[in-house]
Amino acid sequence: MEKILQKLESIASEKGFELFFYKPTEEIWMTGTYQDLKFDIYIKHQRDGKYKFIFEIPFDKKVALFLNEENLLKRLDQIFTENLYFIQNQVEVS
C-alpha cells in the first residue's frame, strides 16, 4: 500500500489533485478535475490482500479488483500518462 500511496501523492502534488488517506482502514481517495472533467479514484486494501479500485467520472464508473499491488501500480501508470490518456479515451467514447 505504501508504493501506491507514494505514487498517488506524487501525482496529486504534480497535477494539483486532492488526495486523502485513512490509515486505520487503508483507504485512499483522490479527486480532481482534468479539462473540466471531474474524476474520483477510490482504493481499498482488502483483508485478503487484494485491492478494490473504483475510477469514476460523471458519466461512467469502473470497478476492478486487483490481486496484488504491482498490478494496481501498472493500471495507475496507464491512467496517469502525460495527458491522462484514460480520461481522454473515456470522453471520446461517450
Write out key terms for the chains shown.
94 residues; globular; 3 helices; 36% helix; five-stranded antiparallel beta sheet; alpha+beta
Can you walk through the features of this model?
The structure is a single chain. 36% of the residues lie in helices and 38% in strands. With 94 residues, it is of the alpha+beta class. The chain has one domain. It has a 5-stranded antiparallel beta sheet with strand order 1-2-3-4-5. The chain is globular and about 35 Å long.
Query: Mean pLDDT, rounded to whole units?
Result: 86
Distance between the termini: 33 Å
The main pleated sheet reads as: 5 strands, antiparallel
Q: Which strand order does the major sheet show? A: 1-2-3-4-5
Order of helices and strands: HEEEEEHH
What's the tally of helices? 3
Percent strand equals: 35-45%
The total number of structural domains is 1
Give the SSE map.
Elements: H1 2-15, E1 18-22, E2 27-34, E3 37-45, E4 51-57, E5 60-66, H2 69-79, H3 85-93
Antiparallel strand pairs: 1-2, 2-3, 3-4, 4-5
Helix pairs in contact: 1-2
